[in-house]
């Protein structure tokens, strides 16, 4: 009798837990669908783009590899802000180009002062 009760109790608890988890998942996906559909409808009605602006907050390994292939050293990468690194990777700006651009801009700045 005791074995049957413990087996039944374990089985019952598993069913209750799984049904509770399924309920939570159902609510989550329902809310996610509702949010995404409202966002899409808002974009259609108001002409707003669905994409949002992203602000980088860290330099990833993939970005470090890309920067290294563009000629940046580890010290250069460590001195960069995440937005500078993202711009350099997206625009394929090589290190030598930045050095030339900064020296040209400094020369123009000096010429303007005179």
Report on the architecture of this protein:
- By secondary structure, the chain is mostly helical.
- The chain has 5 helices and no strands.
- It is elongated.
- The model is unreliable at 103-114 (pLDDT under 50).
Care to give the gist of this entry?
The chain is an all-alpha fold and 114 residues long. The protein has five helices and no strands.
Please tag this protein with its features.
114 residues, mainly alpha, 5 helices, 78% helix, 0% strand, elongated, disordered C terminus
Number of strands: 0
Strand content: under 5%
The low-confidence runs, each spanning 5 or more residues with pLDDT under 50, are 103-114
User: Which percent range fits the helix content?
Assistant: over 70%
Overall, the morphology is: elongated
- Biggest sheet record: none
Whole-number mean pLDDT: 80
Q: How large is the radius of gyration? A: 28 Å
Structural class: mainly alpha
Number of helices: 5
Helices and strands, in order, run as HHHHH
CA(first)-CA(last) distance:
101 Å
Task: Give the SSE layout.
Layout: H1 2-46, H2 61-69, H3 74-79, H4 82-91, H5 95-113
């Amino acid at each position: 009798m005791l074995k049957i009760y413990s087996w039944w109790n374990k089985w019952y608890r598993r069913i209750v837990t799984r049904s509770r988890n399924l309920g939570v998942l159902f609510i989550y996906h329902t809310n996610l669908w509702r949010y995404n559909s409202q966002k899409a409808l808002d974009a259609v009605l108001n002409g707003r783009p669905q994409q949002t602006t992203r602000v980088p907050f860290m330099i990833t390994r993939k970005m470090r590899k890309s920067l290294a292939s563009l000629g940046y050293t580890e010290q250069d990468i460590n001195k960069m802000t995440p937005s500078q690194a993202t711009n350099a990777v997206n625009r394929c700006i090589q290190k030598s180009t930045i050095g030339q651009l900064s020296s040209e801009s400094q020369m123009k700045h000096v010429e303007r002062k005179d």
